[in-house]
Amino acid sequence: MDEHEIAISDRVLELLQRMPAFSGLAPCDIQALFAGKGLRYREYRAGETIIREGDHDNWVYYLISGQVRVLSQEAEVAVLSRYGEIFGEMGPLRGRARNATVVAQGSTICFAMDLSLLDRLPVDDRKSASRLFEAVLNDVVQERLDRANLDAVSLRRELAVADAAVVGLSDRVRELERRICELTKENQELRKLCGK
Questions:
Q1: Rounded CA gap, 53 and 73, in Å?
Q2: Tens digit of pLDDT for each residue in 160-184?
Q3: Which of 72, 118, 136, 183 has the most CB atoms around it within 10 Å of its CB?
Q4: Does domain 2-121 have CATH number 2.60.120.10?
């Protein structure tokens, strides 16, 4: 991984404003949020682990380019590739270990934010920055819940179709079994007639 601390220049501000998580914030709010110098530019190579399940740290990531795989207990749960997608926020927010591993699928660039910077800000700035960040994350969490609900609905529909297919197949198997019994009886009757 290559890492550089970055200042909030006009170009960086423009990149942040294009991200869904920050698009609703005024430039001064974004600058206030990152005033504690907790923003880093990170580049990852294909196959490099960005976040490891079970680890503890305070970093939240915003995808700039590339694609990452999200794995929980080694099973893929998501692939992120959209500019500005946020990942890695749940562990630091809840003060818990990471609940997933995130791996770069190809060359990947992210902004990384150290959430512990909020604790180092003066009290008034900390409250303001915390409220801004909570608002940003609430939107992200709501979007993920909406997406999860849509996925659940889609899976329920697929399950209903599969269930109907299984029921239809079971009915067809019973019909074939009944027909085999009928043919077996006819065959036995024909043998009796031919044997006489």
A1: 8
A2: 888 888 888 888 888 888 888 888 8
A3: 136
A4: yes
